[in-house]
Amino acid sequence: MEIDTDSETPFLDVLIIRKVSTLVTKVYRKPTHTGRYLHFQWNHPSRVKRGVEQNLYHRGTTICQEQEVQSDETVTLKLALQLNAYHIGFITQAMK
């Protein structure tokens, strides 16, 4: 059971933040999240690797509705994918 703390409630993959008159949503990651995704060097077809990128990007743009939160999520996603050996060109092409 998740407990509401500081006007923030995690629900599934969404962190719901209550402001004065609105709700702000962000992608929620558990404190134990390591940022590990399918490594680029692993023996999988490139369409699977592209699918990982596109689905993570789609999740971020769908859940985060404010532009500032979306840009923060995009930066976080780019860093996580680079740590998993994805090339920056491969990343930006998938995010178009």
Question: Can you lay out the helices and strands and say which pair or pack?
Answer:
Layout: E1 8-11, E2 14-18, E3 23-27, H1 46-63, H2 67-83, H3 88-94
Antiparallel strand pairs: 1-2, 2-3
Helix pairs in contact: 1-2
Residue stretches low in confidence (pLDDT < 50, at least 5 long) are: none
In the residues, how many domains can be counted? 1
The major pleated sheet works out as: 3 strands, antiparallel
Rounded mean pLDDT is: 89
How would you spell out the order of helices and strands? EEEHHH
Q: How would you sum up the global shape?
A: elongated
Which class do the helix and strand fractions yield? alpha+beta
Q: What's the number of extended β-strand segments? A: 3
Describe the structure.
Strands 1-2-3 form a 3-stranded antiparallel β-sheet. It is elongated, with a radius of gyration of 15 Å. The model has no long low-confidence stretch (mean pLDDT 89). Helices cover 44% and strands 15% of the residues. It contains 3 helices and 3 strands. The protein has one domain. Helix 1 packs antiparallel against helix 2. The N and C termini lie far apart (37 Å). With 96 residues, the chain is of the alpha+beta class.
Features:
three-stranded antiparallel β-sheet, 96 residues, alpha+beta, 3 helices
